[in-house]
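Methods: example folding runs. The two proteins below were folded one after another, and each record is reproduced exactly as written to the output file, sequence line first and structure-token line second.
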Amino acid sequence: MIGNDGTEEFGVVDGQQRLRTILQFVGIERDSDQESENNNNFTLDALHPTAVHKDLGFADITGEARKRFYLYEICVRYLYTEDTKEVEEVFKRLNKFAVPLKPQELRNATYHGPFAALSEKLADDDYWAVNRIITPAAIRRMGDIEMMSDLLIGLLHGPQGGAAKIIDQYYEQYEMYDDEFPEQGRIQRDFANALDAVRRIFPKLSDEPRWANRADFYSLFIALAHAFRMGDLPRSSEGPMKTMLTKFAEDVSKVVATPSLRLSEPVVSYARAVVKGSNDRARRIDRHEALLKIILPLVRAKK
């Protein structure tokens, strides 16, 4: 919070007890229950009897051990808001039933730039729940917004890993922009085109067990968006595309069940990339390339 005089103040939403314990150990803050005038009388008496620092106070710790103490980094997430209700809500979520916040819940409390706003806007569509791509439980924990973020990153940079730390990095990268991030207009068009194609090819996606699966939907969506940058899908090709993708999904499932089966190279490559670590960047790239081999022949090059 910035004061009228330009000073900046921070409030601790959660973790105050831990921070105060560290400060009391160093001697910066006195424990109100201690009567001694010496601030530095917090000893490590609860350590295991064989621990090196058992019963030592901070004044007793010197040399390299003290350096390591000062160099230790504490993970901090900033909530860039002065809205007390929003802060209170975060605190409640942190402490209610001792359930920690999901990565996307933390992002929503931390980032408010155009990338975050677009992710939230795209998630506000019944399509994701109706087609069971995201479960109601995941939506309650903002899993739908996280999925939109993941898709946007894929449209911007090609298939990337879906780990929380990777998504965090892109949120931070795009937070610096005020109104729009670079290529936002094009990415929104790509997103709309790909989603429209999926709707037309699979009017009832929930009947397609593989493509309604979140990991496989990601690959299909990004591959279609990539293909449509090079060409268009004629209406007459929508039926053949559905038939081809349905057959492809069936063959992938066969290879997953029986790895020794000798089917087409794209099918085998895709099947290998869905068994383990399906959200790893390398496996997403393998699936992306396999799908492009069967999608691009049906795309009509732009004039």
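Second run, written to the same file directly after the first:
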Amino acid sequence: MKVKIVIVAFILAALPACSDETSWTTPSGLQVTEVEHGDGSIAKKGDVMSILYTASFKDGRVFDSQQDAEAPYRFRVGMKQLLPGFDEGVATMRAGARRELLLPPEIAYGQEGLAGTVPPDSWIKIDVKVLKIEPSPPPPEPWNEVGYEITTLSSGLQYIDFVVGDGKSPTPDSSVGIHFSAFLDDGTLFDSTVTRGQPIEFKLSESPLIEGLRQGLMTMREGGSRKLIIPPFLAYGEKGFKDIVPPNATLIYDVELIVVQ
């Protein structure tokens, strides 16, 4: 699930690598406690950061966690791949640093919350440790569909199969592992597991996927790769999504279905 603040970088640049806690509040309302300062350079926009984190409510109830050291969460800094307050909080961290972030609703899940998980207007606490920072990779380009046949479903979803795959297809209760790159219809990249260097795994019945992506995955086979052309009414519709996906946007997803469990 994204904002950044420059002045904190200059404050942190003068701090020695030690375990003394330092706290501050940013203009956005983000409350930061530096538990470990880490060392090395601060990430640049687009760099790939590997982190461990636990997200909880103010009363301590955990609702999301990535604490497996063998599989840290990887994302590109400053590319709106996290909540705004989360992205702001890690943007000025170094490798080895650990922070406790307290996000007000405005830079977390806002008035809408997250269906079935986070109530509206919730404050979110995130304990995050940075394991590694890697230089930004080149962004992926949309797959070239010239010469391939387009299939249109009755729902309005269109797809192009590059590789059909020879494994099993998902069921509604399956867990899947995929690589994907998501573009607006003008070719603008807005999310990609490829640039993070790590596929995403989730259970179809529990993940808040847009309907076009869900439909597209359900008719794939393990080992397949497919371009999905998702009309607005199967994506984010008239509202769009924050400042990432504009209203009434057609989305293009290049998807590899790596594993079905």
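Comment on the second run: The CA atoms of residues 39 and 94 lie 6 Å apart.
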